[in-house]
Design brief:
homodimer, 275 residues, Rossmann fold, five-stranded mixed β-sheet, 7 helices
Chain lengths: 275, 275
């Protein structure tokens, strides 16, 4: 089955990294917003629980989405051979939204990387289907993914490991559980390797809804921290030894919250104001 | 005893906030640099252990400074009446350097604030005498002091409490144990109240040597994080409710390390490069 041609009229679907621990009980603001973009009561949401080792992770999201209306379909992909199964490819073909759960992002990249499933997710998103990921699922969304790294607020050489991700966007590197796990340092370290990319640090229960024009809208309870290194005056990354502080002069930070917007092209932020 | 007139030729002594946990055993780089500025083998260093509730804090520093040469003098000021004692004022009068230990900065402000000792420290510094403080002692140095606050990397309204400090500088707010205790959020919150001031976040075993021209030189093992909010485009501080994320657009960050310089007037940084 070759990828269907992309109609010229279609635009990329939303890309929705979520910082983990999103509300699943009360207003479910982030999940219901995604569900709505996926077609609401007519949605057919493919759930990919591959990052997780827990048996019920996929089913839990299926229950949540089906309680809103529409259909949830769990793709229980546990190894690379699962990711080539016709059955899962057919389910994904029908999906109007794709959701990747949390767990370990290296499970996503090692199991899905280079498979039919990964190709299909990319193609579906290019054709307008929204793709969301929470925690590990959020990290995996971008071209360059933080595999793991040491926590703390200042950048330390050698303390973050990047790996290729799913590649839905090459404009951002995502870090999640941002405030809760104190990850500014590792995000800055990741950006210091090559400042072409922008950093988005997502607090828990906070999502970046990125539209096809690369505008982010912040949804949720926490903050989105944008780290913009476009105007970096100096970085010691090339000469720093492992364990050294990476000196960075001229990092720009924006901390924005629910309702705020950030344009990844113009690099301008518009505050959300309080709810 | 009225303050002696400040000679027109004199310039302010160094102000040296230290991020806490400075090396006291090996190279003692920060302490020996301060000792040297205080006169080296001819130094007479007044040690103020008021922040600490431990009995031996002052004596410990006395031993360190005297092992380098010169004289250490502990001012055991435990309450406000101690701070008016002629004996301590005379010792301070002779001092060629003043060192404030760690502990609780609210002990420093509540016990020394408005006393002869506080006035004398300010006058001595104006006359060229270096004043160093570590941890709580560092926080106390500036006009606006972080009394306490919640940790975490994003700014949260109502989660930091400012108090008047000693007032040797009104250009900076100092936060200490910066990386170790994840304090970027509370420092940004403090700055958001009034962006005229710059934030300096000091990692442990790291000091900012601030000369009379308001140039900082970084000394030590960790990083100095400069938070410059001069170009802040937006702050939600005025309307944020307690517990809300404070939205801040346009924060500038510099992370610099040993040997680096930062000019508090021009707001320009020069990297230190690796040792």
């Amino acid at each position: 089955m070759s990828p269907s041609p992309v109609p010229e009229t279609s635009s990329r679907g939303y890309i929705i990294p979520i910082g983990g621990a999103e509300d699943k009980v009360q207003g479910k603001e982030i999940l219901s917003r995604f569900w709505s973009l996926a077609g609401g009561k007519k949605s057919q949401i493919a759930i990919i629980p591959t990052a997780s080792r827990l048996e019920d992770t996929g089913e839990r999201y299926k229950t949540i989405f089906e309680s809103m209306g529409g259909k949830g379909m769990v793709l229980s992909i546990r190894d690379r051979s699962d990711a080539e199964k016709e059955e899962y490819n057919s389910i994904l073909e029908e999906a109007t939204g794709i959701f990747m759960t949390g767990g370990n992002q290296l499970r996503l990249s090692t199991i899905l990387g280079g498979t039919r499933i990964a190709t299909q997710i990319r193609r579906k998103n290019a054709n307008g289907i929204p793709v969301a990921g929470t925690s590990a699922g959020a990290a995996f969304i971008s071209e360059h993914m933080i595999a793991f790294g040491q926590e703390g607020s200042t950048p330390i050489a050698g303390k973050v490991t990047l790996a290729p991700g799913l590649g839905l966007s090459n404009r951002v590197i995502v870090d999640q559980h941002f405030r809760q796990r104190d990850r500014l340092g590792r995000l800055m370290t990741a950006l210091a390797y090559n400042p072409f990319v922008q950093g988005i640090g997502l607090d828990e229960d906070t999502a970046a809804f990125i539209n096809h024009q690369n505008e982010i809208e912040v949804v949720g309870e926490g903050a989105l921290t944008i780290v913009d290194v476009a105007d970096l005056e100096y970085s010691s990354m090339a000469s720093a030894r492992e364990g050294d502080t990476v000196e960075l002069i001229g990092v720009k930070l924006h901390v924005i919250s629910h309702g705020a917007r950030y344009n990844l092209v113009t690099r301008k932020a518009i505050p959300g104001g309080k709810r």
